[in-house]
Amino acid sequence: MRSWSINRVCALGLGIIFLILGLVGFVTPAENSSGVQAIFGIFDSDTIHNVFYVIVGLLGIASSFTGQFRTFNKVFGVVFILLAVLGVIPALYFPAGSYGHDNGLFLGITHMNAGDHILHLIAGLIAAIVGFFLVGSATNPDRKIRVRQGV
């Protein structure tokens, strides 16, 4: 696989970003007794959130070297747009009031805040647009040669 398509670059970039966020989350000290961390002072995180980001990051990196980058971008885009939309529904945070000033855990699993919702929406939109609408190669010298030869 010699060519680097926009889908491949996007999957690799998202993979690296989310892997870094997940790893930084593991070394960021908790802000309160509930175990919530503020990655870069912007994103709420906890152990489950960090594990999820590390897995997503590794999948993105792996997909860019196994040829599944377009599928990764499509799935990532849909899942993260869905996370962003569902993340703003207060009824999906429970148990309410169990974590100090926190409104609860998203789906009872993990902490999320506005920074997370914005990150999920932007990353999801980028991945979905690239995965569903952009096909082709950024650099593919073999294709240029075939076109010139009429093949």
Describe this structure in words.
- The chain has 151 residues and is mostly helical.
- The protein has one domain.
- 59% of the residues lie in helices and 7% in strands.
- It has five helices and four strands; from the N terminus they run H-E-E-H-H-E-E-H-H.
- It has a two-stranded antiparallel ribbon with strand order 1-2. It has a two-stranded antiparallel sheet with strand order 3-4.
- Helix 1 (6-27) crosses helix 3, helix 1 runs antiparallel to helix 4 (114-133) and helix 2 (47-66) packs antiparallel against helix 3.
Q: Outline, from the CA principal axes?
A: globular
Number of strands: 4
SSE-based structural type: mainly alpha
The domain count comes to 1
Side by side, the strands of the main sheet go 1-2
Overall pLDDT confidence: 83
| Main sheet properties | 2 strands, antiparallel
Radius of gyration: 19 Å
Low-confidence segments, ≥5 residues, pLDDT <50?
140-149
SSE ordering: HEEHHEEHH
Portion of residues in helices? 55-70%
Counting DSSP H or I runs of 4 or more residues, the number of helices is 5
Labels describing this entry:
globular, mainly alpha, 151 residues, two-stranded antiparallel ribbon, single chain
List strands and helices in order, with pairings.
Elements (H helix, E strand, L loop, with lengths): L5 H22 L9 E3 L3 E3 L1 H20 L2 H18 L6 E2 L10 E2 L7 H20 L7 H9 L2
Helix pairs in contact: 1-2, 1-3, 1-4, 2-3, 3-4
